[in-house]
Amino acid sequence: MTADELTQCLNMARMLNLVTATRRINGVLYVYRLNGHYMTWESFVSEYPLERLQAMINRSR
To answer: Nearest to residue 53, comparing CAs of 20, 17, 13, 14?
Structure first.
């Protein structure tokens, strides 16, 4: 995933209220969810790939 795709995914995830914050710890990117739990970026993007986020944005419009 390119840096642009990562930024695009994070922006869409924030728009959909799936992610509230991110943090890099020891080189690993973590995303924080609304419920306060966090997960690695790899886990998040496997659950919400770019195409799924795009479809969710389109449905919300």
So the answer is: 13
Question: pLDDT per residue over 27-51, tens digit each?
Answer: 999 999 999 899 999 999 999 999 9
Residues 6 or more apart in contact with residue 40 via CB below 8 angstroms? 28, 29, 30, 31
Check residue 13 and give left, alpha or beta (phi > 0: left; psi -120 to 50: alpha).
alpha
3-state secondary structure (DSSP) of residue 60? helix
CA distance linking residue 38 with residue 1, whole number of Å: 20
What is residue 24's three-state secondary structure? Answer: strand
